[in-house]
Design goal:
Strand 19 and strand 20 (360-384) form a beta hairpin. The protein contains six helices and 34 strands. The strands form five sheets. It has a 22-stranded antiparallel β-barrel. It has a five-stranded mixed sheet with strand order 3-8-9-6-7. The chain has a two-stranded antiparallel sheet with strand order 1-2. By secondary structure, the protein is mainly β. It has a single domain, classed as Maltoporin, Chain A (Beta Barrel), CATH 2.40.170.
Length: 638
């Protein structure tokens, strides 16, 4: 069916001469960094990308990055319970640990997680300038964890006179949020700082519909900063610090009888980056030297209580990822720009787990383990005749546990400006190294866990797409077909521990339409069809819906007001259910509305409604989700 859709849309793009077309200069000015590691106009990029701007974040009024990303093409968002519940993202059907997440180019994936995945549950949308999403294998530029794609969250860079704001919000589930920020520049110095605190009484993570009534609260304190300055004419610096501290009440799972009155978790994450940029030969040779650290600590405590008088457990996880990189960007000719560099990463992690039950006490301790990786990459970016644009690159990674692996990638695009038409395609390979936990976790009473003989997961992926502008780019349509094959997937076996066993595939179609109805009214439509298969069982991969559809409408009124309407449909998908072991969950539609009004140039009132239709649904089987929710607040700016 999806092949028929592609043929129809492609035919419409290529053989419809009856619509006058021209290229919109404003759209050509859109810049993306993540796809090529250097600033490049979006129209010259072959990758399938999505860019979420600070304006769009402001329009939606969502406090969490997780909710900002919902509805983007090719992305599936899944959260276990309410605020603070584990939250994952799947790109084009790949595993959640196959998405590399960065903040200002610094990897934030958690090295203490079983698969290096990033838990989005605690990441707020404070102090963000833009979010760049690049779909498809990106290991050639970014190494491990980038098989499915890359999400890069870019912090605001202060500019101009100092700007200060304070905001407060309250609403459903006894939720309150306070935030403040300041940004600006002086001479060569720029700065931006943001702070927020969110607390919520929440609802039962184990789902009230199964008789669970204990509310699971949440508390989040976040701080973000970015600043830099020039040192002479040819050197400038950039520094980033982000700190997140969160506490979450959790349950023993999702479903009947899994409520827990005193089970809680806490986490802290500290991200630091220092970068020096050097410009030589009138900007034709740029160098960037970067030092970064991502430190994550998690702890869980579940003491005995009246519901569980014989059971208790506690655990802690501590991880660090340190990185040093040196990148060169050399303009060889107006037709060729070479990007090459080297980076050294070292990850360390340890964990402690203790439990007590009717069968006696026990423990599982992973001593501090290390893994090192030295990566070398090179990419040639080609521009020919202002029509053909492409990149070709390869990477060599030398990992202390799995040895050397090579990945490569090609991404050509052809632009017919007279017809506002772009034809694009990419082909690439990816690799994902096993985590320290998967390698070294010791055996327990229930069997082995870690396996030092694990091979890295590997992928091969390609896509082909067409973008077309109509009516002076007031209407922009895009359709992309994609296919990914995965091998050596790491899964947990109850008797053998972690092993390489599975092969899988995903393929489908992403469709996107951006329509500017008037200067004040915008309509974005997206549809993604994803067909996945676990080749060892023939079943579809869990938590990847086959069909997803989104409508995002934004209307600016009376010059001071704005209203945003989002409709998100998620189709049925496979999940782990008790009877049978796997089963399909039904689809659902969510409607969210956000509005704001500038009372004066310094005061704004705003509000939002989530799940307007009070839909009862589940993202993960057994776990609770919010019903109709209403929030409102005020922002004061100076």
């Amino acid at each position: 069916m999806y092949r028929i859709i592609v043929l129809i849309v492609v035919s419409f793009f290529l053989f419809n001469p009856n619509i006058a077309l021209c290229s919109d200069p404003q759209r050509l000015e859109d810049i993306i960094v993540t796809a090529t590691r250097l600033e490049t106009p979006v129209d010259e990029i072959a990758n399938s990308v999505s860019i979420v701007t600070t304006k769009e974040i402001e329009e939606k009024k969502e406090p969490a990055v997780l909710d900002v990303l919902r509805g983007l093409p090719g992305i599936d968002v899944v959260q276990s319970g309410g605020p603070g519940g584990n939250a994952s993202i799947f790109i084009r059907g790949a595993k959640s640990e196959h998405t590399l997440v960065m903040i200002d180019g610094v990897e934030v994936n958690d090295v203490t997680q079983a698969g290096h995945l990033y838990d989005f549950s605690n990441l707020t949308a404070d102090n963000i300038e833009r979010i760049e999403v690049v779909r498809g294998p990106q290991s050639t530029l970014y190494g491990s964890s980038a098989i499915g794609g890359v999400i890069n969250i870019i912090t605001k860079k202060g500019k101009g006179k100092p700007k200060l704001f304070f905001a407060g919000e309250g609403g459903s589930y006894n939720s309150f949020r306070q935030s403040a920020g300041v940004s600006g520049s002086h001479g060569t110095l720029y700065y931006s700082l943001g702070f927020s605190h969110l607390s919520s009484q929440g609802f039962s993570s184990a789902n009230r519909k199964y008789g669970n009534i204990e509310k699971d609260g949440y508390d989040n304190t976040s701080f973000s900063s970015r600043f830099g300055f020039a040192v002479g004419k040819y050197i400038d610096t950039d520094f980033v610090v982000r700190y997140i501290k969160a506490n979450t009440d959790i349950d023993n799972g999702g479903g009947r009888g899994l409520d827990d009155v005193n089970n809680d978790g806490s986490s802290t994450q500290l991200l630091m980056k220092g970068k020096v940029n050097i410009s030589l030969f009138e900007g034709r040779w740029l160098q960037a030297i970067e030092l970064a650290r991502n430190a994550t600590d998690r702890a869980y405590n579940n003491p005995k209580d009246f519901q569980h008088p014989t059971d208790s457990e506690r655990s802690s996880y501590n991880g660090r990822l340190d990185k040093i990189g040196w990148q060169h960007t050399v303009e060889l000719h107006k037709t060729n720009t070479l990007v090459f560099g080297a980076e050294h990463k070292e990850e360390t992690a340890r964990s402690d787990y203790y439990y007590d039950s009717a069968w006696g006490p026990g423990s599982s301790i992973v001593p501090r383990e290390r893994a090192r990786n030295m990566g070398y990459y090179i990419q040639d970016q080609i521009r020919l005749g202002n029509r053909f644009f492409g990149t070709a690159g390869m990477r060599l990674d030398d990992h202390s546990q799995i040895g050397s692996k090579t990945t490569y990638r090609f991404a050509p695009a052809y632009l017919i400006r007279e017809a506002a038409l772009k034809i694009k395609g990419t082909y690439g390979t990816g690799v994902n190294a096993p985590s320290l936990y998967q390698l070294y976790a010791p055996a327990t009473l229930w069997g082995p866990i870690g396996n030092k003989d694990l091979k890295p997961e590997e992928s091969e992926g390609w896509d082909f797409g067409i973008e077309k502008g109509f009516l002076g780019d007031k209407v922009v349509l895009e359709v992309t077909y994609f296919k990914n094959d995965f091998k050596n997937l790491i899964e947990y076996d109850n008797t053998l521990g972690y092993i390489n066993i599975n092969k899988a595939k995903s393929e489908g179609v992403e469709c996107f339409a951006k329509i500017k109805l008037t200067d004040d009214l915008r309509l974005d439509l997206s549809y993604t069809y994803t067909d996945t298969e676990d080749k060892s069982t023939g079943e579809s991969l869990v938590r990847r819906p086959q069909n997803k559809f989104g409508i995002d409408t934004n209307y600016r009124f009376l010059t001071r007001g704005n209203i945003n309407l989002r409709i998100l449909y998620t189709g049925k998908r496979n999940d782990y259910t008790p009877h049978p072991a796997k089963g399909f969950m039904g689809g659902y539609t969510l409607v969210n509305v956000a509005a704001q009004y500038d009372v004066t140039s310094h005061i704004q009132v705003f509000g939002r409604i989530e799940n307007l239709l009070n839909k009862q649904y589940q993202e993960v089987w057994g776990y609770g989700t919010p019903g109709f929710s209403l929030y409102g607040g005020m922002k004061v700016s100076f």
